[in-house]
C-alpha cells in the first residue's frame, strides 16, 4: 500500500506565493545546493495556519530556502513564512516521509529560521541538519582557484526548548542524561542498539 496520497498540484500550487529562484550558477561554483536530486511531492504548513498539499518541493541547503515548482513547472522560492514542511520519498521501493521544522533557538551558526529534519518528536526532539557551504579550493596551476559546494552533518537534541549538539555515539547521548547513565546502558545492551545509527538513537529516545 502506497503511503503517499495523490493530490493535484496544479490546483494547490496556485495558492502559494513565490518569487523567482536564483540558483548558484555552475559556472561560478561546482556542486549542488539542493538537498534532493529531484523535486518530490510534499506538503507545506504556513505560519498563518494555511496548509497546502501535493506540491513539488525541494530544499536549497546552502541558503535555507524551500523551493517549489509552479503550475508552469518554473522553480520558485516560497516567499510566505513557513512553519514546517514534509517531503515524501521512495528509496529501494519503500515509501517514507521527512518532516522539516524551524523555530528553534540559536545554536552554532543556526537560528530560528533554520530548517531541521525532525528524526524524532516526543518528549525530546532529535534533529538533523545537512548544512551545505562553499569552500575555495586551489588548482594544480599556481594562482588558479575555484569554488565548490560541500556539506557537513549536524545532530541536535532539544530538551526543554534548548538545542544541544550531539554526536552519534553512546558517550555523547549519555552526556545529556548523566543521571540516567545506568538505565541507558542497560537499555542499549538489552535492545542491542548501535548509537552510530539514527534509527537506534530514535529507539532510545
Quick synopsis:
The protein has 4 helices and 11 strands. It has helices at 9-12, 170-176, 181-190, 198-204, and strands spanning 18-20, 40-46, 51-60, 65-69, 75-78, 82-91, 94-101, 116-121, 125-138, 145-159, 162-166. An 11-stranded antiparallel beta sheet has the order 1-5-4-3-2-6-7-8-9-10-11.
Structure characteristics:
11 strands; 205 residues; 14% helix; eleven-stranded antiparallel β-sheet; single chain
Protein described:
- With 205 residues, the protein is mainly beta.
- 14% of the residues lie in helices and 42% in strands.
- It is built from four helices and eleven strands.
- It has helices at 9-12, 170-176, 181-190, 198-204, and strands spanning 18-20, 40-46, 51-60, 65-69, 75-78, 82-91, 94-101, 116-121, 125-138, 145-159, 162-166.
- It has an eleven-stranded antiparallel sheet.
- β4 (65-69) and β5 (75-78) form a beta hairpin.
- It is globular and about 55 Å long.
Layout of helices and strands:
Elements: H1 9-12, E1 18-20, E2 40-46, E3 51-60, E4 65-69, E5 75-78, E6 82-91, E7 94-101, E8 116-121, E9 125-138, E10 145-159, E11 162-166, H2 170-176, H3 181-190, H4 198-204
Antiparallel strand pairs: 1-5, 2-3, 2-6, 3-4, 4-5, 6-7, 7-8, 8-9, 9-10, 10-11
Amino acid at each position: 500500500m502506497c503511503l503517499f496520497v495523490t493530490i493535484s498540484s496544479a490546483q494547490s500550487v496556485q495558492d502559494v506565493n513565490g518569487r523567482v529562484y536564483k540558483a548558484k550558477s555552475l559556472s561560478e561554483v561546482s556542486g549542488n545546493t539542493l538537498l534532493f536530486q529531484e523535486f518530490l511531492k510534499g506538503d507545506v504548513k504556513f505560519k498563518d495556519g494555511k496548509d497546502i498539499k501535493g506540491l513539488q518541493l525541494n530544499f536549497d541547503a546552502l541558503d535555507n530556502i524551500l523551493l517549489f515548482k509552479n503550475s508552469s513547472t518554473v522553480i520558485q522560492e516560497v516567499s510566505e513564512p513557513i512553519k514546517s514542511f514534509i517531503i515524501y520519498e521512495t528509496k529501494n521501493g519503500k515509501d517514507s516521509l521527512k518532516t522539516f521544522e524551524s523555530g528553534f533557538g540559536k545554536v552554532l551558526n543556526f537560528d530560528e529560521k533554520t530548517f531541521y529534519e525532525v528524526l524524532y518528536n516526543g518528549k525530546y526532539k532529535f534533529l538533523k541538519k545537512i548544512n551545505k557551504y562553499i569552500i575555495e579550493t586551489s588548482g594544480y596551476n599556481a594562482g588558479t582557484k575555484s569554488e565548490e559546494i560541500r556539506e557537513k552533518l549536524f545532530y541536535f537534541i532539544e530538551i526543554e526548548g534548548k538545542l544541544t549538539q550531539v554526536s552519534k555515539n553512546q558517550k555523547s547521548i549519555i552526556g545529556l542524561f548523566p543521571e540516567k547513565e545506568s538505565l541507558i546502558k542497560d537499555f542499549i545492551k538489552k535492545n542491542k542498539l548501535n548509537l552510530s545509527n539514527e534509527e537506534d538513537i530514535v529507539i532510545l529516545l
